[in-house]
Amino acid sequence: MALPLEDYAFIGDLHTGALVGRDGSVDWLCLPRFDAGACFAALLGGPEHGRWRIAPVAERQRVTRRYRDDSLVLETTFEGPDGTVRVVDCMPLRDGNATLIRRVEGVSGRVSMRSELNLRFDYGHIVPWIRGEGRRLVAVAGPDTVVIDSDVELEVRDEVVYARFEVAQGQAVDLRLGYGALQDALLDVPEIIFRTEQWWRQWAGACRYDGPYRDAVVRSLITLKALAYQPTGGIVAAPTTSLPEQLGGVRNWDYRYCWLRDATYTLLVLLQAGYTDEAAAWREWLLRALAGRPEQMQIMYGINGERRLSEFELAWLPGYQGAAPVRIGNAASGQFQLDVYGELMDALHQARLAGLPTDADAWHVQRVLLDFLESNWREPDDGIWEARGPRQHFTYSKVMAWAAMDRAVKGVERFGLDGPVDRWRRIRTEIFDEVCDKGFDAAHGTFTRYYGSRSLDAANLLMALVGFLPATDDRIRGTVAAIEKELMRDGLVQRYTQGHDTEKVDGLPPGEGSFLACTFWLADNYLLQGRTGDARKTFERLLGLANDVGLLSEEYDVDAARLVGNFPQALSHIQLVATAMQLRSGAGPAGRRSRTGERPPGGAGPGSTG
């Protein structure tokens, strides 16, 4: 059975990534890229679905692990009765094919080790043909070829590759796995590990953040960088699929794609941290992905901008600790979600404010999207949380339609771009008035999940952060208070009210963990309201949920005291950096974004930001 998520670390090569367990087992790896079929899928089943474990023969071990300084090179140290041994895991940055290097170093004593390599292509479904002998083997099945190279003899039994060896103090044994081919240059393992470690340190050294949470911020930025697909600049939401939002439940989704919704905060975090090249690459991915007819725009795309992300289930996998079904692809890619139009408009506006070199075609693309939004903002949609029930008039969706029009107006006012600004101002006011009328529950003093409902939605914490209303407005204060009262558990925020209408709206049974990004949004609201002590307390509560190597998932199960959801989660780490920046200077992404829509002193009335 797969380990708790806290027991996994993540390594990657800017094309794909692996989850390495505290027990020395690589339980998840997709080759040759994030969204390819997994050759190690024990994370969603058992050892028979593919894994590579290297560990001492003696089971009773004290295990510690760390990343080497500011790098993605992982060390797992086993201390047992016969001595201490260290396993170093590294995925070198690519010049060619994907490679996983595992180096076993003797620290003290003399330790008997075993390696068990169970390759199963297509998510544990296909058993490859393994040929060769001695210290180099080749595993082949259809289009997939993997080469295994070792400093020790390899033995194949029942289609599993085994090795037994000993390491004494000062000795080292290297094992390598290459997809397609194994370059001879990668046989010098100490050198390639050194170069990989050095590259990550240099990259992390460019970080501008120098506040009290630097270690957590840098680890989050490294994780975000590792989730970027280098050839295109697209950033996957997570490297995994079907890690459940509820232990044993059915809310299991494939997150190995790029969500437009994450656009603005990703851009702002990268820019403010000093990573202009990465921000520019992300913006260029956005522009390429959304090119085409506006009504065909999706909420997510593949890492190359692929649109066809058909969802299906893998019946042969029992799921993470029994949470079925296991899903590949994501049907939400075909949903209609108004908020992504606002995210795109805001992201491109923030890029201009930050001085990124302009793209001559970007404004034309935005104009086309605005024309579509003008005709469709009144329609119900599927909402930010990708509900699989009937469409609703979600309040937050309308807020982001407002944000799209607001940023269009700002594009004309601040950058001299061309467009029907008077019409956009008029639509902006119309949306604002409708949200305040239909999305606000005056009896309870709070904005609701959708028009006419009593349910709360933590997405409405973003209303102040995008500048729809000041954080100090009584309606925002009331919304924050209602969320504190009804959606908070043990200091953490759930996405929305879990009540009688949950299954009707979601199309799924209720029940999930607290959503970490929502809790960061609450901390940002506290900061904008001047509640710095509450913000710091909330932020440090979240930091305490990260595992021993600083990684966060999508959600947290308060009852089970465990991370849940896909892991590591880009949005959780993006928000960690954003809130840390806001705490440091008061001018983090939340502050910048909220001021974008701020009304000027003496400006126009409700719904106009002047």
UniProtKB/TrEMBL annotation:
<dbReference type="InterPro" id="IPR011613">
    <property type="entry name" value="GH15-like"/>
</dbReference>
<dbReference type="InterPro" id="IPR008928">
    <property type="entry name" value="6-hairpin_glycosidase_sf"/>
</dbReference>
<protein>
    <submittedName>
        <fullName>Glycoside hydrolase family 15 protein</fullName>
    </submittedName>
</protein>
<feature type="region of interest" description="Disordered">
    <location>
        <begin position="585"/>
        <end position="610"/>
    </location>
</feature>
<dbReference type="Pfam" id="PF19291">
    <property type="entry name" value="TREH_N"/>
</dbReference>
<feature type="domain" description="Trehalase-like N-terminal">
    <location>
        <begin position="2"/>
        <end position="164"/>
    </location>
</feature>
<dbReference type="InterPro" id="IPR045582">
    <property type="entry name" value="Trehalase-like_N"/>
</dbReference>
<dbReference type="Pfam" id="PF00723">
    <property type="entry name" value="Glyco_hydro_15"/>
</dbReference>
<dbReference type="GO" id="GO:0016787">
    <property type="term" value="F:hydrolase activity"/>
</dbReference>
<keyword id="KW-0378">Hydrolase</keyword>
<feature type="compositionally biased region" description="Gly residues">
    <location>
        <begin position="600"/>
        <end position="610"/>
    </location>
</feature>
<feature type="domain" description="GH15-like">
    <location>
        <begin position="211"/>
        <end position="580"/>
    </location>
</feature>
<dbReference type="InterPro" id="IPR012341">
    <property type="entry name" value="6hp_glycosidase-like_sf"/>
</dbReference>
